[in-house]
Design a protein that fits this description.
The longest helix is centred in the C-terminal third of the chain and has 9 residues, at 73-81. A three-stranded antiparallel sheet has the order 1-4-5. A two-stranded antiparallel sheet has the order 2-3. The protein is of the alpha+beta class. The protein is globular, with a radius of gyration of 13 Å. A hairpin with a 2-residue loop joins strand 4 (54-62) and strand 5. 23% of the residues lie in helices and 37% in strands.
Length: 83
């Protein structure tokens, strides 16, 4: 079982960003409305994080526009297991 600190320490977007990032915030949240998971297979098989599930939330200004991303902890666990 991974801790919240493990989820926050690992950056699933690391290496994918050649952009200007400012005002970045990352935290573990309990979602209050359903959110699309930006985790594994997001482009082809994205799934929904259900209300009351916990997720890694990240927001930042990316190339001048706000971006918000949720990754479910199950996807985070799979990434961390592959390290």
């Amino acid at each position: 079982m991974n801790s919240d600190a493990d989820y926050l320490r690992y950056d699933p977007f690391d290496g994918d960003r050649d952009v200007d990032i400012r005002c970045r915030t990352v935290k573990i949240v309990t979602v209050r409305k359903a959110q699309k998971c930006h985790g594994l297979n997001y482009q082809t098989h994205g799934h929904v994080i259900q209300v009351s599930e916990r997720a890694r939330y990240e927001q930042a200004i990316v190339d001048g526009e706000w971006g918000r991303y949720y990754v479910c902890l199950a996807c985070m666990d799979k990434w961390l297991a592959d390290l």
